[in-house]
Amino acid sequence: MLLTGVGKRHDIVSAFARHAFTIAADPNPLAPAQYAAHKRVAPPRIDDPGYVPFLQQLVAEHGVGAVVPLTDLDIHVLAAAASSSKVDLPAFTPAPDVCEAMYDKFRCHELLTELGLPSPPTVLPGEQPESYPVMVKPRQGSGARSIHPAADRAEMEFFAGYVKEPVMIQRLMGGHEFSIDVLCDLDGRCLNAIPRSMLESRGGESIKGQVLDDPELVELGRTVAETLRFRGPGTVQVFRDPQIGIAITDVNPRFGGAFPAPMYAALPGRTYPELIARMAAGERIEPHVGEYVSGGYFTRWYEQLELDADLQPTGRSMLEGR
Predict the structure, then answer these.
(1) How confident is the model over 210-241, as pLDDT tens digits?
(2) Bridge partners of 195?
(3) 99 contacts 30 by C-beta, under 8 angstroms
(4) pLDDT of residue 143
(5) Which of 107, 273, 299, 300 has the fewest Cβ atoms nearer than 10 Å?
(6) Residues 6 or more apart whose Cβ sits within 8 Å of residue 149
(7) Dihedral sign, CA of 16, 18, 19, 22?
């Protein structure tokens, strides 16, 4: 397994490392998640022409069966490489056009609407929304960065000018927010869709939530994943608005922030990392959509590790000797 852009996703890397030899690729020597892998490497920058060849060499050298991006930044790069007949890169990503559309939230809205999937009313600056309040948010962004609610036209125009990057204006959704963690095989079949509540989030990442028994959300997750022909993991974020009902506010063709939720909910032998490892080994997994354990909660906290002067883990506990 080759995981790219691992950053601080120690939970994901350590889960993969339980089921396969795992390589973590991140250019930052202090990215904590890389220390959960069997091997860590520092690739060139994503925009460097040598980025994909570097990954190809790792695939060939270690017999990698799956390349899984953990960040938005290189999903479209890996998708384009995987779709090229000249590049051997087993990336678990959707088609390049889908990845590019998901990275641009306005294009995502357009694509969802075109495919008959529910998306909130959304316009670009210079156009008037159907109603207020609205959300002004970047077209390309993550972690709830630079998102501002606007109660009226004056506030909307102020925030549209205040945010120093392209934005869009979307209906401010009411009701509860949910996420659906999905996994598809390489033929675009949805293997499972596990919905969860978002009880508390920080920086756009869910830190408290509950796995839900909600057939409507399960079916929505399956429909979105198979309509977009996902290959690998994905996350669908939705609201149930009291007025307009369910609408999709974001789709990401990668693992979501609340990765522990589908891990806890999965039946034995069916965690997403284990299924990806089995697919990487050539096994065909049969869909089991809706088969999971609901009702459990998750709550997350920070952890750390000590490195010596050569950036090697000391294995020492923070409390040792205190």
Answers:
(1) 999 999 999 999 999 999 999 999 999 999 99
(2) 180
(3) no
(4) 57
(5) 299
(6) 133, 134, 135, 136, 172
(7) positive
DSSP state, residue 273: H
Cβ neighbours of residue 29 under 8 Å, at least 6 residues apart? Answer: 42, 311
CATH architecture group of domain 176-299: 2-Layer Sandwich (3.30)
Question: How far from the centroid of its chain's Cα atoms is residue 241's Cα?
Answer: 23
Answer whether the bond into residue 29 is a cis peptide, omega within 30°: no
Task: Classify each residue of 62-91 as buried b or exposed e, where b means 16 or more C-beta atoms within 10 Å of its C-beta.
Answer: eebbbbbbbbbebbbbbbbbbbeeebebbb
CA 262/CA 185 separation, integer angstroms: 16
**Within the chain, which residue ranges are assigned CATH 3.40.50.20?**
2-93
- Tokens 């994503």 belong to 46
DSSP H or E run through 232: strand 232-241
How does residue 158 score in pLDDT terms, banded at 50, 70 and 90?
very high
Reduce the DSSP state of residue 286 to 3 states and report it: coil
Mean pLDDT of all residues in the chain? 94
Question: How far apart, in whole angstroms, are the C-alpha atoms of residue 93 and residue 114?
Answer: 21
312 Cβ contact list (under 8 Å, min separation 6) = none
| Sequence-separated contacts (24+) of 104-107 with Cβ below 8 Å | 104/139, 104/140, 105/137, 105/138, 105/139, 105/140, 105/141, 105/168, 105/250, 106/139, 106/168, 107/139
Sheet harboring 23-25: ordered strands across? Answer: 39-41, 23-25, 2-4, 67-69
Contacts of residue 91, Cβ cutoff 8 Å, sequence gap at least 6:
66, 67, 68, 69, 78, 79, 81, 82
DSSP H or E stretch at residue 263: helix 260-265
Residue ranges of the chain that CATH labels 3.30.470.20: 176-299
Query: What are the residues whose beta carbons fall under 8 Å from the beta carbon of 252, sequence distance 6 or more?
Result: 72, 102, 234, 235, 237
Record the pTM: 0.94
